């Protein structure tokens, strides 16, 4: 694994505009960064990332049947009690799930270490599945990369196949906070894939979803039979209409049981179930959230996103704290495992699953050891 500097495509911003990539820059700072790429060997991809991703995914799934019937564990995960029957029913029906992203620390040598699961509303889907593949094709055509170079990226193909089980001739709605450019970009990408499979895919802004006699409806008062939501379950169930969501006849993507696997409390439960697994880090529930941390731990809220409210204490006792709004739930502590540093930036590998199969990776860089929403996305290649 190495970071390789490459000339940018001179017209990449025009290409991005033509292809609907409107969030390639945030507040004047680059999010998409093609001044470099990451090179992996085929062995690294297959043995160190693809195989462990599928194994970790199955390990996480194996916990759900135990958690949905345990009041103790559901309480420890801070899942509201009125959600419990819906979670268990969703799991027992085996409501299908679409995708997820595992965030891994990997330097090309040792085993990849799981930092967290993003299994409810993972983003960076468009840039992982589509735009970095366009970059690869363009670079090969321009001579910037050799013919025969590859990429670990079957996201779009697998998503296309996955959408075949949805819709069933009825409208398939998609929702997010419409004014969020990144969320809308990821959602439009999924809508486009769903349309290609023949789904009657329709967008409805989250704030425009209504309720009639306990059933969710769109702006035309049509029942929402099935909906993909790019909005966290833990937010939705705490909205005024939260209980209606759980009792309506609407089928959700992701299903209600995914609320469990998007919770950081899964990390200590994984460590309890699979102690000393080479791809796991020791993790424990933080019973005393205000107690000082021993060097070499990372403290994370059960519910947090984009690095918010994470406190990191490295092996030398240096502390890094990222503020944020997620301070109203419990916490977990995970053993500190530093992200590798390339060219002065800390590198995180996001490894995707679609259904139950590994489907590709996306690379993000940050100026600090905590990967935040200000991180940059870089493409990758496979070249032995």
UniProtKB/TrEMBL annotation:
Source organism: Aeromonas hydrophila
TM helices/strands, residue ranges: none
InterPro entries: GSPS_pre-ATP-grasp-like_dom, PreATP-grasp_dom_sf
Protein name: Glutathionylspermidine synthase family protein
Keywords tagged on the record: ATP-binding, Ligase, Magnesium, Metal-binding, Nucleotide-binding
UniProt-recorded Gene Ontology molecular function terms: ATP binding; ligase activity; metal ion binding
Chain ranges of the Glutathionylspermidine synthase pre-ATP-grasp-like domain: 12-382
Pfam families linked: GSP_synth
Top-level division of the source organism's lineage: Bacteria
């Amino acid at each position: 694994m190495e970071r390789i500097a490459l000339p940018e495509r001179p017209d990449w911003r025009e290409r991005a505009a033509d292809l609907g990539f409107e969030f390639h820059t945030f507040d004047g700072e680059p999010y998409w960064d093609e001044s470099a790429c990451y090179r992996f060997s085929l062995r690294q991809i297959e043995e160190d990332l693809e195989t462990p991703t599928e194994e970790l995914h199955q390990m996480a799934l194996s916990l759900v049947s135990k958690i949905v019937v345990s009041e103790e564990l559901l309480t420890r995960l801070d899942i509201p009690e009125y959600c419990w029957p819906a979670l268990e029913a969703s799991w027992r029906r085996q409501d299908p799930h679409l995708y997820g992203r595992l965030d891994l620390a990997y330097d090309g040598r040792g085993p990849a270490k799981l930092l967290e699961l993003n299994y409810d509303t993972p983003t960076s889907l468009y840039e992982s599945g589509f735009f970095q593949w366009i970059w690869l094709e363009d670079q090969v055509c321009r001579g910037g990369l050799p013919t025969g170079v590859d990429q670990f990226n079957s996201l779009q193909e697998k998503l296309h196949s996955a959408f075949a089980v949805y819709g069933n001739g009825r409208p398939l709605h998609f929702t997010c906070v419409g004014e969020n450019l990144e969320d809308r970009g990821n959602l439009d990408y999924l809508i486009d894939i769903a349309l290609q499979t023949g789904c009657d895919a329709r967008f409805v802004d989250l704030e425009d979803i209504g309720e009639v006699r306990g059933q969710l409806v769109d702006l035309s008062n049509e029942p929402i039979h099935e909906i993909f939501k790019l909005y966290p379950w833990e937010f939705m169930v705490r909205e005024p209409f939260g209980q209606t969501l759980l009792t309506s006849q609407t089928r959700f993507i992701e299903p209600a049981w995914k609320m469990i696997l998007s919770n950081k409390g899964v990390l200590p439960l994984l460590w309890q179930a699979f102690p000393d697994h080479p791809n796991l880090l020791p993790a424990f529930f933080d019973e005393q959230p205000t107690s000082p941390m021993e060097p070499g731990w990372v403290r994370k809220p059960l519910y947090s996103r984009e690095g918010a409210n994470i406190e990191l204490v490295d092996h030398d006792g240096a502390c890094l704290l990222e503020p944020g709004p997620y301070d109203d739930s419990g916490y977990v502590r995970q053993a500190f495992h530093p992200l590798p540093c390339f060219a002065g930036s800390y590198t995180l590998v996001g490894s995707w699953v679609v259904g139950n199969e590994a489907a590709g990776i996306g690379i993000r860089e940050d100026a600090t050891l905590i990967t935040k929403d200000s991180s940059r996305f870089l493409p990758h290649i496979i070249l032995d």
